[in-house]
Amino acid sequence: MRDLKPWSEEESEWLIRRLQGLQTITETTREIMAEEKTKKKKKIRSYPILVLCGFYAAIFAVMLIYISAYSYNNRQVLMDNSFNTRQQILLKQNSRGRILSRDGDVLAYSEVGEDGKEKRVYPYGKEFAHVVGYSTNGKAGIEALANYYLINTSIDLSEKVALDTQGSKYPGDYCVTTLDVDLQEVAYNALSARKGAVVVTNPKTGEVLAMVSKPDYDPGTIQQEWDSLIADTSPDAKLLNRATQGLYPPGSTFKIVTSLAYIKEHQQDYNNYRFSCVGRFNYEGESISCYHGENHGSLDFIKSFAESCNSSYANIGLSIPRNVFADTLDQLLFNQELPIDVLYSKSSAHIDDNTSVGDVMQLSIGQGATSMTPMHLNMITCAIANEGELMKPYFVSGIKSEDGKNVKNYSPENYKRLMSALQADTLKGMMRQVVETGTASKLKGLSYTAAGKTGSAEFNTSTSDSHAWFTGFAPADDPEICVTIIVEDAGSGGSFAVPIAKRIFDAFFGVE
After folding, report:
1. How much is the mean pLDDT over the chain?
2. Measured torsion, CA atoms of residues 74, 76, 82, 84, in degrees rounded to the nearest 10
3. How confident is the model over 292-349, as pLDDT tens digits?
4. Separation of alpha carbons 257 and 260, rounded Å
5. Which residues, in sequence order, are bridge partners of residue 170?
6. What is the pTM for the complete model shown?
7. CA distance 416 to 406
8. Which of 113, 279, 310, 386 is most exposed, with minimal Cβ within 10 Å?
9. Which of 252, 262, 256, 326 is nearest to 289 (CA)?
10. For residue 398, which phi and psi values (nearest 5 degrees)?
């Protein structure tokens, strides 16, 4: 064994210093590792909190974006809400804007009365009552439709400064409608003292050219007469716009719908249809009579439509598969929302596997539980006139500021196809025959051609009371105007509704 020399004092001190340094490094390492471990634990503990905070921040951002987008897209609806006091604030600052016809005639404007209060004036009185509407005691018609713009102003700042200097209100933006004063007056006067409604539209654009409903009211005095109007429980219902809200049995005008269902099922052979009418049709204990029991004799499909034979159409309706009939009702917007922006009622017509034979027969001729608004019938007629395409009906063509700027323009809008172009052309030809050889012969031999369908809709099962209907268009080959008329408790459509249509067509085409 080798002899070990004892360490010198210097070597011992060096070793001690080295050991102390190593200990310091070890302790520092432990501290660093402990600190890192603590940080990691803290990070692990805080991670869920960060995720949760991010989640709620994202939800808040989405809600903020949604509320902002909803408020912008629905600003008119929100402004028109009765709980929104912004309307009153604006009306203290702005005068309610004017409403004009398509040719610039003033249909409504505001003026300051002797009492210093602003009042609404309607130069044409009752003639435009339901379509233009009113702006007090709630709102209706175009007054409601364009309210957002009528109470706002888009004039230049310099104009506002000038008016502020004078102590005057700012003029509200004005509304240019699609309404034609001449056609409105003709329709109003033609309906005379009768109850009913008239709708006049352009089938190619959807523009509403005229809309009349009677009984009517004076929108200029509605505030004074309001209590009596809403308390009236008689059948008059003057505030009801019968053109869009009145529900009536469509009678024989509904044969347009039944015909479309039959054509869909028999596209290639509908011309082979034959029927012998004896004035009444009996099937499985159920019975349908023709109008006043008329015997139409031997009929094909076209002649059944032209002469409006109830017996033949009850037979046709029973031959249509129920699912095809139901699909046709759905296709023509029955029992569903309509693409119009004023108050309206949904039309109602139903058929399924549980519908009785009697109810199918009644449905086929537009009677029984079937009900329809004149506006809806006009829309279907417009689709036929426009090769199957329905244009969305609209009442306002533009909004302008009083200093001449365009604020908003409205253009024709295609809503949807209600039938194929071939089906529309077939129905158009059938409606032409109603004029040439059928129940609307008072429109035959004129300087223009017309097509349409009449109807005599029974509304009282205990009597023979009936509403008179007509719906049609002109010129027959290239329609420019579509007219739908109902005259309550008047009798046959050919006798009472067709002459009104003729007056409107004559006015449109400038026939003296």
Report:
1. 89
2. 80
3. 788 999 999 999 999 999 999 999 999 999 999 999 999 999 999 999 999 999 999 9
4. 5
5. 94
6. 0.85
7. 29
8. 113
9. 252
10. -175, 160
Whether 486 and 197 have beta carbons less than 8 Å apart is answered as: yes
CA proximity to 472, closest of 199, 242, 244: 199
Tell me the CA distances in angstroms from 436 to 150, 440, 512, one per residue in order: 47, 8, 22
Residue 388 has pLDDT above 80, yes or no: yes
Identity of the residue numbered 387: E
* Long-range contacts, 349-358 (Cβ 8 Å, 24+): 349/254, 349/257, 351/322, 351/325, 351/326, 352/322, 352/326, 353/322, 355/322, 356/286, 357/283, 357/284, 357/286, 357/318, 358/286
Q: What is the pLDDT of residue 412?
A: 97
SS3 274: strand
pLDDT exceeds cutoff 90 at 6: no
Q: What confidence score (pLDDT) does residue 1 get?
A: 44
pLDDT exceeds 80 at position 21: no
* 55 pLDDT above the threshold of 80: no
Measured CA to CA in angstroms, residue 334 lies from 58, 327, 328, 354, 379 at distances of 43, 10, 9, 18, 12
**Long-range contacts of 269-277, Cβ-Cβ distance < 8 Å, separation of 24 or more:** 270/301, 270/426, 271/300, 271/301, 271/302, 273/300, 273/301, 273/304, 273/316, 274/298, 274/299, 274/300, 275/299, 275/300, 275/304, 275/309, 275/311, 275/312, 275/315, 275/316, 277/309, 277/311, 277/312
For Cα atoms 265, 271, 274, give the angle at the middle one, nearest 5 degrees: 100
Instruction: Please state the φ and ψ torsions of residue 31, each to the nearest 5 degrees.
Output: -65, -40
Q: Which residue has the tokens 């004023």?
A: 342
What CA–CA distance (Å, rounded) separates 407 from 397? 11
Task: Report the C-alpha gap between 474 and 71 in whole angstroms.
Answer: 43
Q: Residues 243, 246, 247, 249: is their CA dihedral positive or negative?
A: negative
Both tokens of 355, joined, read: 């519908």
State the Cα–Cα distance between residues 161 and 172, nearest whole angstrom. 15
Amino acid at 365: I
**Helix (H/G/I), strand (E/B), else coil: 46:** helix
- Left (φ > 0), alpha (ψ -120 to 50) or beta: where does 45 sit? alpha
Nearest CA-CA partner of 447 in 511, 386, 497, 403: 511
